[in-house]
Specification:
- With 304 residues, the chain is α/β, with parallel strands linked by helices.
- Among the domains are: 66-76 and 146-287, HAD superfamily/HAD-like (Rossmann fold); 82-137.
- 38% of the residues lie in helices and 8% in strands.
- It has 11 helices and 6 strands.
- A 6-stranded parallel beta sheet has the order 3-2-1-4-5-6, sandwiched between helices.
Amino acid sequence: MSQRVAWRVPFRVTQRKSTSPSRKQKIRPRGYVAANRTMAKTAVESAVPEKAADAATNAQPAMPSVIFFDCDDCLYKNNWRVAQMLTAKIESFCSDRLCMRPGLAYELYKKWGTCLRGMQCENLIDELGVEEYLEYAHDIPLGEHITPDPELRAMLLSLDPTIPKWVFTASTKPHATRCLELLGISDLFQGVIDVRAVQWATKHDDDAYLNAMKIHTASLPGTTLKPHECLFLDDSTSNMKAAKRCGWNTVLVGRRARDTGELLECDDADHAVDTIHQLPEIMPHLFPHKRIVAAPESAVLPGR
């Protein structure tokens, strides 16, 4: 049972009826009453800080209309082993098959967001070459490095079932599908939005996010979607920047830099976690079993 909080109105002047006809009545300056009411209110709020804090905690954040998950190094973590294999395959294709100088593939990636996009924009590869490149680069033994993740599956299943979930990857749909199958979560998403689906735009480019929104709304006829209704989880700070620029809500998954291991600073991430399994800790409102029912306003300040 809540206890009433005792408090005093500060600097209150108590008047007594004058018994002497010559004694003048004290006159309060203009604004005195309003000032004391404000001070009294402050006194109450200061006396029950835990109640004010509870009220703020009970205010539920807005629910997203859709959640977009990156795939590699986001839905799974394995010390970038898959990323390193992909990088080696890309470098091999560019140097051995396209006779590009060593290191150019990485330079294109840094400049354009992906090596493929760089080769397309700089006319270093044709359409047939693109298909050959994608098949070659993703021909890696994923099964040796990705295993079923029951904890991840349980977490995804505990998300609010009314919120659609997509895998949004800069890779290809076949590659992402293999990853999802190995993790044991391929049945938990609306689908995979890959590099082809967004018309080759990279996640450094606003068009990728706009296209992803269009794909989602097209899958649910009659629906509309605004940028602030999208929640995006990814391991790239560059992708966080682009998504935030488009108005999306963002969660950085992985707080350590790949090359140096240093703690990342990302002003464009609304939240940051080490692994995706920590999502319920930072956004409990997405999980029905973790939601807190807001207390009625009358319960905020006892004695009202």
